[in-house]
Amino acid sequence: MKKLVLAALLASxxxxxxxxxxxxxxxxxxxxxGQAELEQTVDLVPLRGNDPNTxxxxxxxxxxxxxxxxIGVADRLELALYFTFQPMMNTDLIQNxxxxxxxxxxxxxxxxxxxxxxxWPIDVGVYGELAENDHExxxxxxxxxxxxxxRLRVAANLWAEYELYFxxxxxxxxxxxxxxxxxxxxxxxxxxxxxxxxxxxxxGEYPTNPAPAxxxxxxxxxxxxxxSVMMSFGKVWWTVAAYGRVTDTDHxxxxxxxxxxxxxxxxxxxxx
Length: 272
Known about the structure:
Layout: H1 2-16, E1 36-50, E2 57-74, E3 77-85, E4 105-113, E5 123-133, E6 136-149, E7 152-168, E8 174-180, E9 183-191, E10 194-207, E11 222-233, E12 236-245, E13 262-271
Antiparallel strand pairs: 1-2, 1-13, 2-3, 3-4, 4-5, 5-6, 6-7, 7-8, 7-9, 8-10, 9-10, 10-11, 11-12, 12-13
């Protein structure tokens, strides 16, 4: 009898959470109405900058921290608020550091799924986001696609952004960028508390005002792929993934390049 009670409690606790088994690829799962979840994401990327004393390249670890509050507001409808922070190393140690993709700022987003899971041959949802950070406004949209094969789940995000920079050039032109950032992943649920997956993402930035005469490595597009592991402990879940860059593998990083050879992302969530 005690075992049955414990199992029921564990199942109830597990069901209340909404874990992210793939750190870059969104699935079509949403929180139930009235639920809320707090998530913390950390990106770590080995990069190169300049040693101010010698002028030579020096390695450092680029990082971004993102805190997110998700709220279920209706069936298949979810809102979220974000705070992002990108710390920079002391410039007395490292100069010409890269700007990663989420700078200091805030975001607001909505995710809506058109039908209950499995009702359509492919689960379909949409995701819209506004971001305001220290150098730009950003408008982001995703088409979320997912299909389940029993314990195996395959998901894809058709993802694009439009960025409006605050700064202007000598002619008064404010830079405008179109960014493509599609993702594709698959995750297999070994049991409700443990999943393994393979996640991938591509990012390319295309300035339009003005457009550069030649493309730099820092504009991409660059493609990453790697394994992920998700563990759920009832109301708390943890996902970690390591990605390797599979494009421009012969490129040697220079100061300011944002695409390291490897990219690590970890997420932890707590259902409130």
